TrEMBL record, chain A:
GO MF term set: ATP binding
Designated name of the protein: Daunorubicin resistance protein DrrA family ABC transporter ATP-binding protein
Localisation per UniProt entry: Cell membrane
Lineage: Bacteria, Bacillati, Actinomycetota, Actinomycetes, Micromonosporales
Gene3D superfamilies in the record: P-loop containing nucleotide triphosphate hydrolases
UniProt keyword Kinase, yes or no: no
From TrEMBL, chain B:
Record family assignment: Belongs to the ABC-2 integral membrane protein family.
Transmembrane segments: 21-42, 54-78, 99-128, 134-156, 168-186, 224-246
PANTHER family (UniProt xref): NODULATION PROTEIN J (PTHR43229:SF2)
Predominant subcellular localization, coarse grouping: membrane
Stored InterPro entries: ABC2_TM (IPR013525), ABC2_TM_bact-type (IPR047817), ABC_2_transport (IPR000412), Nod_factor_ABC_transporter (IPR051784)
Organism name: Paractinoplanes globisporus
Keyword Transport part of the UniProt annotation: yes
Classification lineage: Bacteria, Bacillati, Actinomycetota, Actinomycetes, Micromonosporales
Annotated ABC transmembrane type-2 domain residues: 20-249
Protein name, per record: Transport permease protein
Protein's UniProt keywords contain Electron transport: no
One Pfam family of this chain: ABC2_membrane
Subcellular location: Cell membrane; Membrane
Length: 308, 252
């Protein structure tokens, strides 16, 4: 499969602050790639560079098959950007904002009008079409913003924290839009601080911290690589706890009367319970802890914190 | 070219939507004219030895102020585009890069010239008497248009360089203060010391003198060369400055 985005050794500093210290990744065509990271980790900077807004200090980047440094105008023709740093025009109505984009994409009047109607409909903005964008709610602005991006039918779309500050309903709607776009063959590059969002949408995730990518992979790969899964067993009293600790050869927590056993697979669980059953140890309660992306995120960014 | 036209249309729409801009560029100069003629006119008339009506003297100065207000409005509009992120969006699109700036300059120039026409019409109603003839008027209009373009490009640059709307204030101050330290409202000869020297040498004085001469039909001499020269220098300065600011990476 060809890459919609290929980044090799990307570097960027602001003054003496290194924001991106040589990052590499590839995004396959027609997939969703999520860039995760704490605030100020350089997510927005990465989007700004990939969308031709600012220059990098070094590295090779190809977007939609075009060299970013050599053919920025061709890159611009293939991409769409929606995010924190780009905006809608407050002094125009929703419909006028879309028509402005249609004109800038050199659609003829009729086609521009048709596309505008279509997108207003799709994004549930039909009733607000004739109102100034300055009167829109946060969710409406974000929807208009994305609709404006879609006018030119971009092949690669950058979404910089597209759902930050949105209510759950608007967020679901945004997610569905992203899924529909990807189903239509569009490539999505997304930054987010919501791990659930990355888990829901992304085919591949990269975690950015301290100017470097500390992990890249599918959500499952990232979770698997983490020793976070365990079974927590709770026992009725201290004596049973001690007995269980001897059977399982494990460190008990005397205060909570619990033992954490690593591993959370079905087979491991069955073996564990069999063992306790044979030894006649009574278990009061049992809970399963599978690692989620939050665990991955904390483990990765904390590790980077220590080594920095 | 079509991108620039789209941006000009956008700019006209903005003007309709922004009553503040209309009052600032179109209404305020007329208010200023009324103020100078109605409030200060009598006193200034008494102090002048030329014998012509003060309105004949002051109309060129008010036209300069008109251009200044237009440039200030442009600076604020450009700054708004920068701070809201609209320009960032345009920059990531495959459009003619400077078209958004061209849209501002063309839109502002048309607004300012309309306002100038209004000022002249009101001045006529207040008793302006001119003998410039069609050719003089045409030349005056040309000079005013050139000055407007120059000041508007400076306004665009000021708007791009400011991080917030408040950052535009120094530009506004300079643009609106300089006419008072020129031959706009009183002849520099009536001033004293350093102020007089400054008023005689700053760029606005030859421009205003030429404008006044062309309108009234009095002798201009070779002052017009200096006036046009200054306009061209200011236009080039504004354009080059604006282009450099637009090309550099925007602030985070």
């Amino acid at each position: 499969m060809t890459s919609a985005i290929a980044v090799d050794g990307l570097r960027k500093s602001f003054g003496s602050t290194k924001v991106l210290d040589g990052i590499d990744f590839e995004v396959a065509e027609g997939t969703t790639f999520a860039l995760l990271g704490p605030n100020g980790s350089g997510k927005t900077t990465t989007v700004q560079i990939l969308s031709t807004l600012i220059h990098s200090d070094g590295g090779q980047v190809r977007v939609a098959g075009h060299d970013l440094a050599g053919e920025p105008q061709k890159v611009r023709g293939a991409i769409g950007v929606t995010g924190q740093f780009s905006a809608v025009d407050d002094l125009l109505t929703g419909a006028e904002n879309l028509m402005l984009m249609a004109d800038l994409h050199h659609l003829d009047r009729a086609e521009g009008r048709r596309r505008t109607e279509e997108l207003l409909d799709q994004f549930d903005l039909g009733e607000a079409a004739k109102r100034l964008a300055s009167t829109y709610s946060g969710g409406m602005r974000r929807r208009l913003d994305l609709a404006m991006t879609l006018i030119g039918r971009p092949r690669v779309i950058f979404l910089d924290e597209p759902t930050t500050g949105l209510d759950p309903r608007s967020r679901r709607m945004m997610w569905q839009t992203v899924r529909d776009l990807v189903a239509g063959g569009v490539t999505i590059f997304l930054t987010t601080q919501y791990l659930e969002e990355a888990d829901q949408l992304a085919d591949r995730i990269a975690v950015l911290d301290g100017g470097k990518l500390v992990a890249v992979g599918t959500p499952e790969e990232l979770k698997r690589g983490l020793p976070g899964g365990h079974v927590r067993l709770t026992f009725p009293d201290a004596a049973t706890l001690q007995a269980a600790a001897r059977v399982l050869n494990n460190q008990p927590d005397d205060e909570t009367l619990t033992i954490d056993v690593p591993g959370s697979g079905v087979r491991e669980l069955r073996l564990l319970l069999d063992k306790l059953d044979q030894a006649g140890v009574e278990v009061a309660d049992l809970s399963l802890h599978t690692p989620d992306l939050d665990d991955v995120f904390h483990a990765l960014t904390e590790r980077a914190e220590v080594t920095r | 070219m079509s991108d620039a036209m789209t941006m000009v249309r956008r700019n006209f729409r903005h003007t309709q939507r922004n009553p503040g801009a209309i009052i600032m560029t179109i209404g305020l100069p007329v208010v200023l004219l009324l103020l100078f003629v109605g409030v200060f006119g009598g006193a200034l008339q008494a102090g002048s030895r030329s014998g012509t009506d003060y309105i004949n003297y002051v109309v060129a100065g008010v036209l300069l102020m008109t251009v200044g207000y237009g440039a200030t409005t442009t600076a604020l509009a450009v700054n708004r585009d920068v701070t809201t992120g609209v320009i960032a969006r345009f920059r990531t699109m495959a459009i003619s890069r400077a078209s958004v700036l061209t849209g501002h300059v063309v839109g502002s120039t048309v607004r300012t010239l309309l306002s100038a026409v209004l000022v002249v019409l009101v001045a006529f109603a207040l008793g302006l008497r001119v003998h410039g003839g069609p050719l003089g008027w045409l030349a005056a209009a040309g000079l005013l248009a050139l000055l407007t373009i120059a000041m508007t490009w400076l306004g665009v640059a000021a708007g791009l360089s400011a991080k917030t709307a408040e950052g535009v204030a120094p530009f506004t101050l300079v643009i609106q203060l300089l006419p008072f330290l020129s031959s706009a409202f009183v002849p520099p000869e009536s001033m004293t010391g350093a102020v007089r020297w400054f008023a005689a040498h700053e760029p606005f004085t030859p421009i205003i003198d030429t404008l006044r001469g062309l309108l009234l039909g009095t002798s201009v001499g070779d002052r017009w060369l200096v006036a046009v020269g200054w306009c061209l220098v200011l236009a080039l300065l504004g354009y080059v400055w604006a282009r450099a600011l637009f090309r550099r990476d925007p602030n985070r």
